[in-house]
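Incident log, support desk, overnight shift.

02:14 A customer reports that sequence design results differ from what the structure should imply. Their input is reproduced verbatim below. On-call engineer (initials T.W.) acknowledged and began investigating.
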């Protein structure tokens, strides 16, 4: 697909949208005016510049959003970018609950998109936290200390797989739940598998 041309897969996505359809269509128009290439990735309209992902349109129950893949590198002078969760390192969202919000912020949207394109042209990268910088859940550390085979297997995992387990175990609010998750994941860890393998 070339810049400013619509993608049939995005057409189908919009035609099937049960919520946020008008908002998605307005976001699409604004993004295409910025000369990005329209693609369809991860089940959503995705817009690229020279094969690099710039923004993605997606919807949730309470809002729809334009996700900037390297949003952490944008200046965000207007203070409108949102970090979806504390563990999202690079991406930032602009959220909308009404079509009028998008219409009102169209110029800001275009400005942020153009800045995101410049970030890509400059080859800038988001400095990602290393796995060791994430807090190890106490229950996992105790289990690793008590089970040398599990510790050896966990340390042999790729940093991304380790991080996935750490974040999954940490997300449980109760110690009992964290312990149950660790027990459930023991065998996959011993088998060298990641959380989603």
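02:41 Re-run completed on a clean worker. Output:
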């Amino acid at each position: 697909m070339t810049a400013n041309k619509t993608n049939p897969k995005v057409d189908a996505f919009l035609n099937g949208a049960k919520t946020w359809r008008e908002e998605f269509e307005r976001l699409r128009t604004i993004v295409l005016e910025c000369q990005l290439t329209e693609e369809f990735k991860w089940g959503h309209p995705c817009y690229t510049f020279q094969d690099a992902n710039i923004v993605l349109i997606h919807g949730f129950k309470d809002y729809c959003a334009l996700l900037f893949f390297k949003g952490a590198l944008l200046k965000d002078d207007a203070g409108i970018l949102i970090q979806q969760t504390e563990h999202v390192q690079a991406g930032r969202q602009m959220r909308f609950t009404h079509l009028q919000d998008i219409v009102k912020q169209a110029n800001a949207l275009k400005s942020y998109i153009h800045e995101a394109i410049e970030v890509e042209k400059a080859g800038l990268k988001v400095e990602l936290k290393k796995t060791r910088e994430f807090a190890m859940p106490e229950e996992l550390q105790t289990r690793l200390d008590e089970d040398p085979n599990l510790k050896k297997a966990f340390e042999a995992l790729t940093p991304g797989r380790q991080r996935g387990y750490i974040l999954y175990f940490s997300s449980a609010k109760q110690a009992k739940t964290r312990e149950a998750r660790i027990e459930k994941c023991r065998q996959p860890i011993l088998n060298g598998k990641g959380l989603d393998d």
